[in-house]
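Example protein
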Amino acid sequence: MYTVKIERNFSSAHFLRQYKGKDEPLHGHNWKVQVAFQGEQLVHPEEYLVDFVEMQAFLEKILKEIDYKNINEVPPFHQINPSSENIARWIFQEFLKSVPNVPIHSVTVWETPEGGATYIREN
């Protein structure tokens, strides 16, 4: 089994609705995203699981939608909380829309260097 990972950073603001009963104040983060791909079969003749350059381009395109923005104003986060958990799931789903056959395994989103959340593909 092979695992390949790519990472990208972005900056944006957000707030959580109903945070401990009230809205959390708007604040910003320098976020980090890691996307992991997993599989047993390598692409031939190149002998890689996924193309790093292609996957980075897809991730960059997805993150442009939330980079340097108030995430709460970007669909679907205008209706759901832009928590690390929900952002990780959204990036995962957007990746599958862009490249449905890619062996994506998980997406991890860090709000801080010490705290993040991972969304893992269900089998």
